[in-house]
Amino acid sequence: MVASLTDKQIQHLYWRAGFGITPKELKKVQSYSKKKLIDHLFEQSNAVKPLYVDLGILKKNPEQLTKDEKKEFRKLQNQKVLEMNTLWFQQMQKTEGILREKMTLFFQNHFSVRLRMPQIMLHFHNTIRKHALGNFGEMLMEVSKSPAMIRYLNNRQNRKGSPNENFAREVMELFTLGRDNKYTETDIKEAARAFTGWDFDKQFEFVFRKNRHDTGVKTVLGKTGNFNGEDIITILLKEQQTANYITEKIYRFIVNDSPDPKNIKTLAKAFYESNYDIESLLRDIFMSKWFYDQKNIGVKIKSPVDLITGLGRQFNTTYEKPKALFFIQRKLNQMLFYPPNVAGWPGGRYWVDSSTLMIRLKLGSIILNNGVIDIDIKDDMPENRMIQKKSKKTGLAKRIRATGDWNAFLPHLNNTNKKDLVDFLIQPQLSETAQKIIAASKNDNTQEFIVELLSLPEYQLC
Amino acid sequence: MKRRDFLKQSVFASGITLVPSFLKGMEFLTPEQLSGYRNVIIIQLSGGNDGLNSIIPISNDIYHSVRPVLAKKKEETLKITDDLAFNDSLKPIKSLYDKGEVCIVNNVGYPNPNRSHFRSTDIWQTASGSDQYLTTGWIGRYLDANCQNPYEAIEVDKALSLTLKGKKMNGIAVSNPNLLYQSTREPFFKDIAVNAQKEMLDEDNQGYLYKTMLETYSSASYIYETSKIYTTNTEYPNTAFGNNLKGIANFIISGLKSRVFYSSLGGFDSHVNQMNTQDRLLKIYAEGIGALVEDLKKNNRFKDTLILTFSEFGRRVKQNASRGTDHGTANNVLLIGGSLKKQGVYNELPNLADLDKSGDLKYTVDFRSIYATILGNWLQVNDKTVLNNNFKKLDFI
């Protein structure tokens, strides 16, 4: 049985499993069967490519530093987190393994941690990256015991006799069961006792401090015993609700902001039965028929990372300085490694407000045309266009200083007629307004037409 | 030239035709409408301002004994009562206080306080309980329930904070009306704005994008055109915060039909060497507010203005080992306005002898009571709809 997908459906798959598809990639996979295409996606993401940042310079004991040295040390720490940020963006733009990047993005936000400590943030990130297409239970266990999580959710302060409930609460509310599902305040208090003693040492290695651990009997989710932290995680994974919650969150991320309870129920059951195998959950989604339904195509608002990386992969964007990329991320409210809080970025419509939308709409023109969209349809004097195109970077383009490469894109297009360009670059159906504007455009210059498409509200969707 | 005269000579003299056609139905307020048009300015001191070193329990022995390095000496402060004094960086606030334009509410907080910046900020911004995660801010819900246009709540800052995000409508974030206006002035965007009609009605994400785009497009013009009417000649301190307040003053005095303004000043997270940092920041705050109030008074708008200043939490009573203080809980809140009903110190001073397990102040006033008072008594809207609950109102306004 060879069921192949239409171009639009392939583009859909690539937007949701990654950051869109280039004309070159599309040509390559166009003839693949659905199954082969999905196998191909997983194969390309097989390799785990950890981020690497040289942190040797931070191997000092901050307690032995003078005041000025401490200040310098903190500055260095900041720089290194920013370096991680830049590296991750480069990797997302260049890698073949888009699915792993996308799921790393998902789980880095699921286990949302914000610390200016590159030593433990890098380890945390690479732990997530390693498990992103693997087993959720193993990821949960390793992430929970990572110094970053222990530090961020105050498990260092969680000791026998004076428990700190921060991690116990979030592991139920945010990481497994979901808010107000199954657990009570007493479950949190009891679980906190089980996590006492989890700490890390000066080498940033997990240690279990026995003398801080509460060895007493605890009752959590109806089960009673001499539980330690690992036991609680195991108990949480035993709950079908954990599979339901994770499945729904992944569904919202990959498929649609509005969940379909029937699909989610089927997926979650299989996810639980597979013992939380993330790859098989994703295969179930991508192999399904409903994933390619019209109602799921072009309906999600791209996250800033989707938008920036999507343009980056398509046009091979280069930034004069890393600062430019930080500037965009801050302006669009998604700075990698700096989530707003432990709940992470909510996604969806959260991305769009008056201060972000106009910048998002201008991003394509900034990268490709010095910030000029240039479609004054009443003005069809070619000289004027020439002048605008030659003009220097202005306004936002001056701040952002990013440049795209048309040669990474144009030569690989089969067709440059308007309809094909619209079909390739715009995932949703064009609104009446956009249709009208496109139809009225007298523009026969392909580059200018593409810049116009990238400036439509429709390009914000995938 | 006074604003009123200016208006008479320009816009009103030449009729309303100056207003572009897509702005019809949302003209700015006439001078007659303007008087009595109440507004509230919300200032967030981000990072957790140490309230005990801002408004100081100067005669309290515990204060001096647990803060051997950080406690202010009496002669370094500005006296409020025998027991209470302003940090001397707050001189401009002290002079407003002496005129009966300041109300200090002590011990403001909420049950089960959270000491995380992010979480506690969320709680204050969404007006949630500490066990509740809301995705809309309290001003966003005010917009949803009471307003027609997003620009009726404006954040003068780089991005829109959660406070101003509603379900149906978001407020507008603008630091530079000119820049926002310019970014919308693409001929291409104009074509979309002029042609887009039907999409605005759709509830889906595409509809939302078009709606936000049109809201921004028209608000940007409205804000830009209207705020041109008045440009202050009052001198503001040359700080980013001062500039933001200046922007707010221009909006208010120009007659922008906005009732809520929001801005923040950051850097208050004083774990280490608190004294210099905090005093410097308080000075920036106080000088900015001083200039703003002077400006509003000159233009007869202060009587219609209420300024709320808060921080996501106060700091620990006891100083830490690095000449700083750690995250705490309850804190004082400042209300400044030309029409306060209750001036001075609103309630009892913090009780330093009765702390919680962590050594933090216990709250006695729920911050949502202050919100309810502002919504119900000052803006005169239904506070229960916005706060999803009935909170006891105070009588400072």
From TrEMBL, chain A:
<dbReference type="Pfam" id="PF08811">
    <property type="entry name" value="DUF1800"/>
</dbReference>
<dbReference type="InterPro" id="IPR014917">
    <property type="entry name" value="DUF1800"/>
</dbReference>
<protein>
    <submittedName>
        <fullName>DUF1800 domain-containing protein</fullName>
    </submittedName>
</protein>
Automatic annotation (TrEMBL), chain B:
<protein>
    <submittedName>
        <fullName>DUF1501 domain-containing protein</fullName>
    </submittedName>
</protein>
<dbReference type="Pfam" id="PF07394">
    <property type="entry name" value="DUF1501"/>
</dbReference>
<dbReference type="InterPro" id="IPR010869">
    <property type="entry name" value="DUF1501"/>
</dbReference>
